[in-house]
Design a protein that fits this description.
about 170 residues, alpha/beta, five-stranded parallel β-sheet, 5 strands, about 35% helix, globular, disordered N terminus
């Protein structure tokens, strides 16, 4: 899967406009300024994982749109027995490289249940109805126009599927 030209709701976003490079830069800045946020242990007690644990939404086949560096996806497979598999999608190669490193720390059986791909979250290329749950965490607040992503969530979900949307406190 590759990122499309629509990007994530910003006019002319996507690879052609350099949005992938912008998010690569953001993750590099995080490495330099706040490297703890790139560790699994940082996320274990983070409010995002608290929301995931307390929610009955996340079950079965989960798609994480804007998965970033993948810590939450790895922890979901590790800690939430109702989650059968997680597919994390992001536009940043740099973020996805971290996600794959986190996945590689898992035991083989859990590792096989987490997949990361580069994709435009407005047009993922995944089949319609392929997700029992969709996670959109720390992504909505980055979108100039969230409508395309919300349509994609609706397309991805099964008839009885649910979405968990998490935004930073105060947004």
């Amino acid at each position: 899967m590759t990122a499309g030209s629509q990007g994530i709701g910003i006019e002319r976003a996507g690879e052609d406009a350099g949005l992938d490079r912008y998010y690569d830069s953001m993750f590099r800045d995080r490495e330099a300024i706040f490297p703890q946020a790139l560790e699994l242990d940082f996320w274990r007690d983070h409010f995002v994982m608290q929301a995931c644990r307390s929610s009955e939404v996340l079950h079965g086949r989960v798609v994480d749109l804007g998965c970033g560096t993948g810590e939450v996806d790895v922890l979901m497979v590790e800690e939430l027995p109702a989650v059968a598999s997680v597919t994390g999608l992001d536009i940043s190669d740099h973020g996805l490289s971290y996600a794959r490193r986190h996945r590689d720390q898992l035991p083989a059986d859990a590792r096989a249940r987490v997949h990361f791909h580069k994709a435009d979250i407005t047009a993922t290329g995944l089949p319609a109805g392929s997700a029992d749950a969709v996670l959109l965490s720390h992504t909505l607040e980055h979108l100039w126009n969230p409508a395309p992503v919300l349509r994609e969530i609706g397309r991805l979900l099964t008839a009885d599927g649910l979405a968990l949307v998490v935004v930073p406190e105060g947004r």
